[in-house]
Amino acid sequence: MKMKKVLAGVMTAAMALAFAGCSSTSTASNDTADGAAAEKDSYTIGVIQFGSHPSLDNCYQGIENGLKASAIADKITIDRQDGNFDSATCDSIAKNMASKNYDLIFAIATPAAVSAYSATQNSQTPVIFTAVSDPVAAGLVESLDAGSKNCIGTSDVLDFDAQVALIKALQPDVKTIGVLYTTSEANSVSHLATLEAVAETQGITIESQGVQGAADIPQAAATLASKVDCINNFTDNNVVSNLSVLLEKANAANVPVYGSEIEQVINGCIASISIDYVALGEKTAQMALDVLNGKDPQTMAVGTISEGTPVVNTDVLAQFGIELPESYANAEKVTTGASEE
Q1: Is 44 helix (H, G, I), strand (E, B) or coil?
Q2: In whole angstroms, what is the distance from residue 120 CA to residue 129 CA?
Q3: Is the pLDDT confidence value at 83 over 90?
Q4: Which of 271, 258, 134, 274 shows the shortest CA–CA distance to 191?
Q5: Are residue 38 and residue 90 in the same domain, yes or no?
């Protein structure tokens, strides 16, 4: 599956995007006789994005694609705001959106989702999250089988069985895989536990190095790279935002870094079993439209994109003198810094 490249841009702290100039503020009855929501004259939808990096930008692009393709596209106004990777900022944005009784709030990444969920507990505003790796651990839902009273969304589940298989194919003698992660990101803690369980069955040791913020990454990355055969990167927002620093330290130690999606591979990781974050965003948009149409989040399961695509960076393969195995001959091939076509 070919995944669309979306270049990350700089977002203002408060950016409104209107699909059409409709200004009606009709408050039509929420439910019709058959239980479906009555269509309104206009919808104000908030988007809280934890911060701007390619994976999360792609999630938003998918959400925008899905809403623009909907039957109510010309009635939707989006207020997209960036949390700048700060939970307190996300809290403030979420409280403001909830106080204005937005029709729905999208939350991109776990910290933004937690902020939106907390802010809407005493309101009727539904929260639709995306790029939340473990929504149960984050307290957004009690299980993956059903949403909570006003909250449902999609999870970026990583296929670590396939990822470890890819690493072993490129580095058959791998014994130790390093992981740099942010201790305050619930998604990364969950990913680490899953990777450790998968690696144990393969006789591989996981060497993890926790950080608290961006300032910790240079030293932690250098220390980690000195002890491992390779490094596996998650969708950790702090680390992804500072991926160039991790790559610099790993390259200096002659250690390849594996990514979790195509943007990381384009930016210098050697390979990945990649999630299509645009597709994940589109699925999230459809779930939101269902909720706007009257579907109860408590009757919906958390959505996922199950198919992962092998992606390899041919520049980085050559840098480390690694030949692509025949079993991955059909992997999508990219080069460092090159946009997808």
Answers
A1: strand
A2: 13
A3: yes
A4: 134
A5: yes
